[in-house]
Design brief:
The complex is a heterodimer of chains A (279) and B (331).
Chain A (H helix, E strand, L loop, with lengths): L5 E5 L4 H12 L3 E6 L5 H12 L3 E5 L5 H13 L4 E6 L14 H28 L3 E6 L12 H21 L4 E6 L8 H8 L4 H5 L3 H13 L4 E2 L3 H12 L2 H14 L6 H6 L1 H5 L1
Parallel strand pairs in A: 1-2, 1-4, 2-3, 4-5, 5-6, 6-7
Chain B lengths: L3 E5 L4 H12 L3 E6 L13 E5 L5 H8 L4 E4 L12 H21 L3 E7 L24 H18 L4 E6 L1 E3 L9 H12 L1 E5 L5 E6 H14 L5 E3 L3 E4 H12 L4 E5 L1 H17 L8 H7 L8 H7 L6 H14 L4
Parallel strand pairs in B: 1-2, 1-4, 2-3, 4-5, 5-6, 6-10, 7-9, 8-12
Antiparallel strand pairs in B: 9-11
Helix pairs in contact in B: 1-6, 2-3, 3-4, 7-11, 8-9
The chains are: A alpha/beta (279), B alpha/beta (331).
């Protein structure tokens, strides 16, 4: 039987979002992919339709603007797309000291990482209830558990998603919507990240995963209705350490690695493509 | 009027052939080489040698003087290196020097040789130029070539007429060097009279005959559209048909021994350890074996349609290659 329902994935043009889209397509889910205008989403849609034979819509919206979240919702209404899976993946990352970015950056980061998933979950709630069994998957981060320097706002936005997901999950229990949250560690999401990860040494490097592998775990976990998904052996181990080690040891360990971690950037890209390094 | 062309990477597998072909076509060929005494230099009356390095912009400018066209084929073409920063200084920064110089010197056509590795593994169908990459980048080589392509596109926006061509696994008569792993494989099959066929023998990859790739460069220079990328590939073959075709064309009794992938991986791991102990550089590692187990089918349709690119059948290309290796007394 052909699947009639659709999975909505935000931030689907690159990195983990793209991997999630490919993973869902491989499982014969129809897709609504959302990403920023001009991010090459069309090419991905064409590829997915041709290779997996699923119906794919590609919609371009800047979800850091709340009107755009509403526009997206109305557009999907208008197109009468039955959405039964909402994957909130779009987000802005970054590793830098608090004073290294201006207020505008943090405002945008909070809008995209916190406000947009909340609005989308609220807007699509009725549709999801209507097309149950339905799923919400929020993409958080391992940084939501470790209060790392250089990850202040990012980590906090991701902690919000964990708390939000767990609470909403309890609320929607027995109503046909399962809410899951995934907390990946470092991933090879784009060439810049792979470059950085190839130049990272020590423990951090072992835990780096490819987004394809994490996407499989994510969708598996979502369909199995898991509450919290931690992908990979090393990341699970970090979580265990977090429970076992006293606070002072943990801080000593993470402090060292975070202070050493620089955003290694390729000087070339600064001059040719400042957009790419902003995220 | 005689056209002048600068070709980089002329001591390499593809670059050498490009230089010789350009010379044959009556171009005045400038080549930029690091070592004027290199035994790998192309020799032809039309070829003028310039000593220098693409990482040194001054030498690039000097070699490019009075040229109309550029073929930039120089690169670190291997999957790993002791010092991985050379991938970025040569493949990315070197390319930027070339592009900068080309823009300043008013070069009319710039052809950049990229790699199928940037496109990555394929899905159900062979990948074409417009398909997105479906897995993460795996190594410094892939990233450096991807960034170099981004740079080329950026310089196109600034007004340079540049074309990207992408070559997959290339085989055929030519230098024995880093870029030419296919000939090394053929040589060892011919001398050992056996080949290990990985158990994942249905895995498909693309194999391009070097003469096609060289020809494709000139077609791209003549007919290619600025800012476009063209895959210059060959046939898509599974390992099974790849080894079968080689066997049929050697005229010898070659034993094909099936080998489980895990065993190959184990061997590659041990080999890598031994090389590390002996401080010898090697390109074999379990990661490379994993790479070889991915489908990497490519479609050259765009080049065929828009450039008139033609593909030599694999059996014909392999016959020529084996003949070449036999003449060089490898078999």
């Amino acid at each position: 039987m052909r699947n009639k329902n659709f999975a909505l994935i935000t931030g689907a043009s690159e990195g983990f979002g793209k991997a999630l889209a490919l993973e869902c397509a491989a499982r014969k889910m129809n897709l609504v992919l959302v990403a920023l205008p001009g991010s090459g989403l069309n090419r991905l849609c064409c590829y997915i339709e041709r290779n997996f034979g699923v119906t794919t819509y590609c919609l371009e919206h800047d979800l850091s603007k709340k009107e755009e979240c509403h526009n997206l919702f109305h557009e999907i209404r208008r197109l009468q797309i039955p959405v039964n899976t909402l994957i909130n993946n779009a987000g802005i990352g970054g590793t830098h000291y608090f004073d290294e970015r201006d207020t505008e950056f943090y405002y945008k980061q909070i809008e995209l990482n916190v406000v947009s998933p909340t609005l989308l979950a609220h807007l699509f709630l009725e549709d999801l209830l209507h097309h149950s069994p339905a799923y919400i998957l929020n993409v958080s981060s391992l940084a939501s558990f470790f209060y790392l320097p250089k990850k202040q706002v990012y980590g906090a936005t991701k902690s919000y998603l964990v708390a939000f997901s767990k609470s909403l999950r309890r609320e929607l229990k027995g109503k046909g919507i399962s809410v899951s949250v995934i907390c990946p560690g470092g991933m090879n999401t784009n060439p810049q990240m792979v470059f950085q990860n190839l130049n990272t040494h020590g423990l951090g490097r072992w835990s780096i995963m490819n987004p394809e592998a994490v996407a499989t775990i994510a969708i598996d976990g979502m369909l199995k209705k898991k509450e919290l998904i931690i992908p990979g052996f090393w990341n699970k181990l970090f979580m265990l350490f977090d429970k076992l080690l006293p606070k002072c040891y943990k801080e000593m360990l993470t402090d060292k690695s975070m202070r050493e971690s620089k955003t290694i950037s390729n000087p070339v890209l600064f001059s040719i493509n400042p957009l790419k390094t902003a995220v | 009027m005689i056209m002048k062309i600068l070709i980089t990477g002329a001591t390499g597998y593809i670059g050498y052939k490009l230089a010789m072909e350009a010379a044959r076509r009556n171009y005045t060929v400038h080549i930029l080489v690091r070592d004027l005494q290199s035994p790998l230099l192309p020799e032809h009356p039309n070829i003028i040698k310039f000593k220098g390095d693409i990482t040194d912009k001054g030498s690039v400018m000097a070699a490019m003087r009075n040229c109309d066209k550029v073929m930039h084929a120089a690169a670190i073409a291997k999957l790993s290196a002791k010092d991985n920063s050379i991938f970025y200084s040569v493949n990315v920064e070197g390319t930027r020097n070339m592009l900068d110089a080309a823009l300043v010197s008013g070069i009319k056509k710039f052809v950049f040789t990229s790699s199928g590795a940037v496109i990555g593994p394929s899905g159900k169908y062979p990948m074409s130029e417009n398909d997105p990459r479906i897995t993460a980048f795996e190594n410094d080589y892939e990233i450096s070539k991807h960034w170099a392509e981004e740079l080329v596109k950026e310089y196109c926006r600034r007004g340079l007429f540049a074309i990207i061509v992408a070559a997959p696994r290339v085989y055929g008569p030519g230098h024995e060097c880093n870029g030419n792993t296919m000939n090394m494989l053929l040589k060892s099959i011919l001398s050992l009279r056996l080949a290990f066929v990985p158990s994942c023998d249905k895995v498909v990859a693309n194999y391009a005959f070097v003469d096609d790739v060289v020809n494709g460069h000139f077609l791209a220079m003549e007919k290619g559209l600025g800012g476009e990328k063209y895959i210059l590939g060959g046939e898509n073959l599974s390992y099974r048909s790849f080894f079968q075709t080689i066997k049929q064309n050697t005229g010898k009794n070659i034993r094909l021994i099936p080998m489980p992938r895990l065993l190959i991986k184990l061997w590659s791991f041990l080999y890598m350890c031994i090389c590390n102990l002996l401080k010898k550089e090697t390109h074999i590692s379990p990661k490379v074996i994993d790479r070889l187990a991915q489908n990497r089918a490519l479609s050259s349709d765009k080049a065929v349609r828009q450039l008139g690119y033609s593909i030599t059948p694999f059996s014909e290309g392999i016959q020529k290659t084996i003949l070449h290796l036999k003449n060089k007394k490898y078999a």
